[in-house]
Input
Amino acid sequence: MERLIFYILALTIILFSVMTVTSRNILRAAIYLLFVLLATAGIYFLLNYNFLAAVQLTVYSGGVVVLIVFAVLLTAKIDHKLEPVNKVKSALTALLAIIGLGAILWAVFGYNFTGNGMAEGAYDVKAIGSSLLSYGQYGYVLPFEVISILLLAAMVGAIMIAKRYKND
Amino acid sequence: MKEPLDLTPLTQSIHDYLLSYLSPFWTTTVEWVIIGVLLIAFVALSVMGLVYIERKVAAFFQLRLGPNRVGKWGLLQTLADFLKLLMKEHITSKNADKFLFNLAPFIIVIASFLAIGAIPFALGLQAMDINIGLFYITAASSIGVLGILIGGWAGNNKYSLIGALRSGAQVVSYEISAVLSLLTIVVLSGSLQLSTIIESQSDGWWIFKGHLPVFIAFIMFLIAGTAETNRGPFDLAEAESELTAGFHTEYSGIKFAMFFLAEYVNLFIIAAVGATVFLGGWMPFHIGNWAAFNEVMNYIPPVIWFFFKVGFVIGLIMWFKWTFPRLRIDQLLVLEWKYLLPINLVNLIVVAFIAMMGWYF
Amino acid sequence: MIEGIGVTDFIVVATIMFFVGVYGFIVRKNLITILMSVELILNSVNINFVAFNKYLYPDLLQGYMISLFVIGIAAAEAAVAIAIILNVYRKLQGIDVEHVDTMKY
Amino acid sequence: MQTNFSYTIWIPLVLLASFLVVGLFGDKLRPRLSGLISTVVILFGAVLSYWTAFQYFLVNGKADGVYQTIVAADYEWLRFYDTLAIKMGVLLDPISIMMLVVVTTISSMVHIYSFGYMKGEKGFERFYAFLSLFSFSMIGLVIATNLFQMYIFWELVGVSSFLLIGFYYEKPSAVAASKKAFIVTRFADFGFLVGILLLSYFTKTFDFQELMQPDNAAIAEMAGLSFMGMSVLTLALVLIFMGGAGKSAMFPLHIWLPDAMEGPTPVSALIHAATMVVAGVYLVARLFGLYALHAPDALSVVAAVGAFTSLFAAVIALTQTDIKRVLAFSTMSQIGYMMLALGVSRYGGTEGLGYTASMFHLFTHAMFKGLLFLGAGAIIHAVHSNEMTDMGGLRKYLPITHVTFLIAALAISGIPPFSGFFSKDIILSAAYEHHPVYFWTGWAVAGLTAFYMFRLYFSIFWGENREYEHKPHEAPFSMSFALIFLGIMSAVVGFIPFSKYVSSDLMPYETHLHMNVAVLSVVVAVIGIVVAAVMYMKPGGAADKVVKAVPGLYKLSLHKFYIDEIYLFVTHKIIFNYISRPIAWFDRNVVDGSMNGMAWVTNKVSNKIKGLQSGQLQQYAFVMIAGMVGLALFVLYWASR
Output
């Protein structure tokens, strides 16, 4: 059952990823991206990483994609098709991507991944929360603080950039 | 003391029964189908009920009679409307992006259904009780806004586009306040799991236990929830005088009905979450140590309690709609970012302090 | 852990997604599509982190946390990027990456 | 049982707080309120200082008849490595407590006085903020426990002096004067810093108490180490004295002090007469143990510089017409006196008479010179001019100023029983015991001092009656209060038996009036006064005839011996022409030329290759990814082999 779902999700991800970057209708591309992200959230649910999945849903699907759709709504017209990509460039890039993919898959399949064989740890929200704010080993208070500063800076920056000045 | 009616044995017996005939894979599949069918049936019925109630409430507020022709007291009016919508022609405007145009209603409805799956209707009657239930509901319902945006854009109509942008901005903004006000209870009960949150209210609902801050949070939640469902007085996306019907102007027939459905499902979800988190979900109403009174209350089954509370919250929201005048878009955003958000943040800090000091009952 | 699915399956999915993102990033000209490609790349990395966490070090939270942080950064990045895109649109009436060259030599 | 002196830390801290409050929020407050805050705070500091002095000198500063050096507070501020740290603290011994009293007293008087003097000025609250900053820094300086703390506050004092001289920053001359003062003292402080580094390099400490330990091996080693014909210790101490000389306006670093009179007159009284300029004297006194015991040569330098400066400045003061400048040169002269006294002193007992004398003179000088400046301020306030030639016959209009000014003039001239007499007398007796040249120099300066002070006095208050645009009026109460207070102080502080409290080895001893010296100095002072009276008391006196008799000398003195011009000549004509110009040519043609050549080549080359940098992000990304993939393939290929 789970295996089946995984395959469906994986297929969704791959298919819609490709459609995202090839679609000539920009809003559709955004929707395909949404599907990719939803499928990713599905994979997280499947792995029983519920909190992460919900974060993915809220931030990515409910936040980033909404932002992108907003940007599209403000910058594109409905009958506006993106110009077709340069054939040579596209072919070259596709070749590069395929070579890179091949190289990495070759490396991945040639390597034997072995886990540390430990039992699964606690992934409930409490464990995540205390780990986020702990100072000790496997405590993430520093990155947490850095991220919060980053978000603040991004917020201020975004407002300043998008602000309309009087003389504009 | 009588234990509240637990429906877990019922679901468990169904599960065991299925397992005895089918492989685990098929058991799960069949269970999902059953749940899906039940939910759809429930949603369809309750939305019909809600539409009827809303029309009656509106009529009551406006000193009219409301629907009273089809069936006894107009009870079948919504069914008739539904049939009419089902049979209407599907119109798609010129140059519309057909794929997205057809997709949008589904996104909204699916988002609503995803969210409703985690609502605990009664003890043991919950499709899924995951450990981040509350967060899951907000996450799932946050996808719905995409349907609004896409639907408004794909119709190739500038009014619907403006309506979509407005509702999009509105929903995204007010979602923050809604989540923040829910977080106060998460802080107090120490869990995101809905069953645990309900469990933590067995000795009193949070709205009674949590002093003023929780009451403020409840008010905030009601305001934010009303805005999130695009209902009056925050329904300016559908301000008829300015934007005709907002983002779903171009929709007709059953697709329009789906937007309509989603709107009422969202209303139900907001009310259900509010009732669960602040008003104790299916927990019966108890007063201190009035043992006899409490015992009587215990005899009312949890399902009834739950729907009673949901009805109460829905009633409040309908009351708002027909009482307050509609806001302007800038007033709406100012209300959120300059008033509700700061109040919520401060309130959350206060509640965190209360929780830390253990100052709640 | 999913029965019958190994960590390599996740890596394959993530890698394909990554290179599709790279392809989009290089080929597309619209700034918003480029941004979407970047999101694909980030997301593929997240899948990798999560899969490694789940399969190789299930007792720890590192991959989980990194994924959370990546999601946070992606949100910040998207917000700033879209602010820039809107500003570019306002200035240049278009968001083709090749038009944004007023500061070129 | 020692008294706990730790409360003294509050004296600088409240002043700092007052500076911050008035400085940051001064423009929000009403000017008078910010002035009031500063004044109340400095009065509080003064009361604390008096209490400290009382406790220390009269109650229990002594143990076995010797004054103790008390470290009332000590905080580590900056640690360099495990044996060297900079500390901040409060060191109490007789001279620091004396300085505390002097600084807070004069500062309080100036604060009160400024209420009247600065009334209605733009930047009233800024003025008070700077005054607070100055008082804070000066107190930090005098209570320093170590050389480095002293250096820090030394610079802070320099900064606040700079700010106050340039208070009228809209006046170009004030700006120039503040810059001049800052640059000259900075130049001198460079010597100070090098001296500190030398000293601390060898002794590994900044702490005064450790430095003063008689059996300090490092000091002995330094004294034994020879460099360019003198011991390293002597060199270090001479360099430190250079810092002191800069701040105290000793020849040849004196040129900033007359110009510093551009600041408001209360500032001149506070900084350039009574407190800051004696910082150099204080510095030498603070390190006196080192000077006297290990480097008598450095002390000879101090004495020589002091003696020369006192004579030199007194001669210049004879002919100046700007009353504030006369007072400025007089200050230089008197500080030269103090330096002389330090220079002729030796360590311990009655040998250390000069040390006591110097500190005593510092104390009395602060009172009467502060009074003179404040009096001058009152006169300027009344007449709206600095020039002596614009004044005359003012005694009728300004009775209080007249009386107090007279007291101060008598005090500085060394007429008994005013305070100056006593301190000058022991300076002269100390000089007498050391070397007759120093004594006769000091004696002559005493006569000159009496002469120029009474020249000033008679020209202002007597002489011909002039018509004034509006009738000069007595200063407001806040100003005359300060005058009266300081007048009383000037008259009586001479009776303090100073040697009982301040001595080079902290051991109290007795001094007696040296009759011969006293008679000689009083006689020369009286001669000076009489000559001045003859020349200036009546209109059309004998002054012009004297000027005509020795025109060269007169001009030389009037132009301050052309020292400023010499500085300008050296810098502009010699350094600029013969050193800077060739360097500039070299810089412009050779150095810049080669740089420009490189830039030209770069420019040409980059024009050729700039197509590579297309500015197209996607092209870069493509190349980058290609490189990455290529690298990955390369590594994989090698790994698989």
About this structure: DSSP finds three helices and no strands in chain C.
